[in-house]
Records
---
Amino acid sequence: MFKPVVTPGDTSWFVRDRFGMFIHWGLYSLAARHEWVKYNEEISDERYSYYFEHYNPDRYDPKAWARDARDAGMKYTVLTTKHHEGFCLWDSQLTDYKITNTPYGKDALHPFVDAFRAEGLRIGFYHSLIDWHHPHFPIDGQHPMRNHPDAQEMNKHRDMGKYVEYLHGQVRELLTEFGKIDILWFDFSYPDFVYRGLPGKGRNEWQSEKLLKMVRELQPGIIVNNRLNLPKGNADFYTPEQYQPRSWVRVDDEPVVWEACQTFSGSWGYYRDEETWKSPEQLVQMLINTVACGGNLIMNVGPTPRGTFDDRSLHALNVYGDWLRAHGRSIYGCTQSEFAPPQDCRFTQNGNRLYLHIFNWPFRFIYLDGLAGKIRYAQLLHDGSEVFVKSALRDYNYEAVAQPVSADTAVLELPVRKPNVVVPVVEIILE
Ligand code: GLC
């Protein structure tokens, strides 16, 4: 079993809890067509200010959000305090581009932290390194004004040092004004991305070493992701996104703590007309696939401009909640198994409890190579009903089995009908 690289942050709770809620919420939510809308459509600051002028999430109820996350089986949350657009969800003293200056007029972050903490979830802050609004953020290939004919000239009046002071100052606000913060989720670095002569930004531009040192001093034990462009050993966890790793994530060929970040649809921000919403099977299998490879999964909700989770998000959250209420112990506290699973199945494991997740329900038998004589008992996890375990060398008349099996193979005898759950699981208690 892999022992990931040890890092300064405390990941012990993280790798136990396994499942979190990402929340992307900002001015882009009003556009309702992706959080990168200002970049994608090269929207001017003046036109984008319409969203600031009309930002008023009058139905915002973080206690409802927190209940939805808890009921979905999510154990921690990460909220965008500021996304690339530069808009801040708290009453920052370092900018006017903040929620308290919109028609809504109130800080959203303290109520959020209080509500989720009250439901027992760990608190994470996403914070964008990129800032499309700040007057001293140099225009680059990730900026909405990347194609402006005067971009190079404009950059002569932009002082990256002033922006870095702002960036570090706001991170200090976030880590000193909201109590214990468990995760800091920075996004993102692109040191090698040069666009039309506009250089990228990485550890040197962000002054990442100084920033991370401050973070760890202010919040001992906090875990920080890998997007500050620092060498291995600085990040507490790695963050593959929008694809499914097929094995334990490794850096320089060493296993690391990792968290896959995914969306219910394709967009992180609220996207009204998007149709690529994942099926219940995809949602549950993504969680299982991730834990079976030793990782965490954080699934994203993009709240509406009114401050609600829309019906599609609530449906997806209910899929997770329904499945995890019956199958949670095959996820929480589990990791990659020492055994290889049979076809169309995944294993997760927690000590002597091995969980067989069956993605394609077979007719009557599943063959577990290498497990003969190692299984004490087995049961369907959703209802606790026994599953018979047969061994090639035990008291079983193999004429009834479709084909002979090797001596080290155990055979599970399953009901003909698939149980009425998205992904059935057999809990195997090892000798
Ligand atoms: C990508 C997206 C960004 C999102 C992040 C979450 O970087 O571009 O909008 O916040 O993923 O992981």
---
Amino acid sequence: MKTVANLAMVLLLSVALIAGCGSSSAQKDSGDSGSSLESKEAGKLITVGFSQLGAESDWRSANTISMQSAFVPEEGYNLIYKNGQQKQVNQITAIRTFIQQEVDYIVLAPVTESGWDSVLGEARDAGIPVILVDRRVDVADKTLYSCWVGSDFELEGRKMAAWIDSYTKRIGLDASELHIVNIQGTIGSTAQIGRTRGLANAARENGWDLMAEVSGDFTETKGREVMAGLLKRFDNINIVYCENDNEAIGAIDAIEAAGKKVGSNIRKGEIMVVSFDGVNKEALDYAKEGKISCIAECNPLHGPRVRALVDMLVEGETPDKFNYVDERLFSSIPDVTEVKVDGVSYPVQGIDE
Ligand code: GYE
């Protein structure tokens, strides 16, 4: 498992900061890998068609900015960006358009895993390499794409479950006293599949009461709606596992609107919220205030990483097939300072660190 995280491991604690890091001046300072030098000298830009899945979350916006900032004409690239509006059919149309436009490379951030075999086959027939970013595709023939870069979503889920385990033990709760609901991401997306699995397996192994798994589609609106519904169905929820920060913000609204208190003091009747990403400023503020008890980082800054992969392909090199990013856990609760998954220990950092 190769880690590329250290290339850009600065987790950005606000969207503003993310935008700043993605500015073209930052790109200019980032140094030239030399790989696109020839085409640049010849005045020919490398054309990259980027099919982004949507704009559903702050994570996604940060990811789009990172991509747009990495592939700029001054650095030798022409990026054609298409927003799929969370619909696979739009992404398939975008890829077909890229093929017609004869782009040099296609970068795909797929909304869900299944259903890509035909269109990726068309890209291959046209001789256009495909790079996957963030989520993955489930295709029978793995040679339909060159490589992938993104997060280990199941590990994120397992680390969060390990944090829940340590923290609830520390406050003296028995496993059977954990009444958990999972507000899942977009069903069938790699991030949802991994994070859901991480929790579901831990719930089974530990004997937790995982009462419901409902999709909030990674959005704040759905998170609010789903949480309001869950509070009507169950009167004993004490842990809400949100598969991203935007859902958590919506869920917190719904919990407070129902007259309940959000926080880690489960013994005193508070409902504890945990989430994923760590990109959204409001979510980080909530984490500082203790309204979100733990956040598993998911790093969206893949632009320079994808660019490095494109550059390798330009040079005729073969990048590693799967490229993982290192990620951390954040919590303002000092009680748990590290968690262990498969014998590997991961530190839990404070929000301001
Ligand atoms: O966690 C969520 C976004 O696939 C990692 O998608 C990504 C997820 C991210 O909508 O906020």
